[in-house]
Design brief:
With 439 residues, the chain is an alpha/beta fold. The chain is built from 17 helices and 17 strands.
Length: 439
Amino acid sequence: MNSHNADSNLDALWLPFTANRQFRDAPRMLVSAKGMYYRDDKGREVLDGCAGLWCVNAGHGQPRIVEAVQKAVATLDFAPAFQMGHPLAFQAADRIARLAPNPLNHVFFCNSGSEAGDTALKIAIAYHRLRGEGTRTRLIGRERAYHGVGFGGISVGGISGNRKLYGSLLTGVDHLPHTLDLRRNAFSRGLPEHGAELADDLERIVALHDASNIAAVIVEPMAGSTGVLPAPKGYLKRLREICTRHGIVLIFDEVITGFGRLGASFAAEKYGVVPDIMTVAKGITNGTIPMGANIVSDEIFDAFMQGPREAIDLPHGYTYTAHPIACAAAIATLDTYAEEHLFERAAALSPYFEEAAHSLRDAPHVVDIRNEGLVAGIELAPRNAKTTRAFEVFERAFHDGLLLRYTGDILAISPPLIIEKNEIDRIFETIRRILKTID
């Protein structure tokens, strides 16, 4: 047991994806937020350059969302989702289904992107079994992918640091190659020109295992957490064609790309490629209350609606599925996106954001810049040191009043969609200034 001291309260909390001992030496504490800015415990404003954690797309403290949450908690604080319903759940599902491309017309709620990923994998395997193809159990992910932290998600995911401590994970999983190709695509603006043929590796996996044993392929249309890897032009379309040809369920993980991040409702809409299942979270409630969802095609949903009417059709769910407060937040969030035209705003700002990001091409240590919509990844040259340059930039930026994300040697920028041009300028000018000062 730790001795009681001035910092004992910091020892009680084990932060996720954090160097906890390093953090305790110099804590970065946020105490309030409004619009584009956090405020820290020293009273400083901190420009939010990453929408919290890719989730606060409409900016902080949106009045409509705050009011909806306050009303909901005072009216119906909890309702069980097993064998019961409440009006807000059906309203939220209908709104989300209407936003998604056809035939994705059915919504299953959960509480996070991690839960959405594992739920999608279970639905895909069960779908094949209900159709009399129970041998289809193999799952295909992709190198450098992130699909949450459940055992299913890290099994199909491909970030080594998220996998190495946890044993053999799920069996029967293969991985497509990642799409990053610095030799051919460095400093691409938007979708890279080269790499669509990487989708053809799925044909190799099909030949190895036979399609009759493969349940699903899961990919992010733009891999975010690994360092912003937009899919090459034509890549998603080829994946869709191969999956259709072999009867494989295609799952898009749109936890990051959904709800305006790329300048459209979803990447599926922007690129005109519709999966069989789409996982969403983060922007679904503007990060206000935890919520995730699977948006499922008519064909998959209908396969479960068979047998006795009194039989449970999907033996899966969570205590907090379709939580009333989360549903209220989701409805208010979708209203906010629509009334403030935030998806259109993101699309209109994207060219300016792209120019600002690529203005760092000549900055020290920069080896690649990748962008799509209001997302940019700045990859820095590695160095032989305990900390990466990206972490050093992240740390110095925070002290300069700017919150960034970093992963390995890559900085990720994904601000709220309400950002103004002068704030875009400030983000990239701050990064340039810091890069000039580090070795």
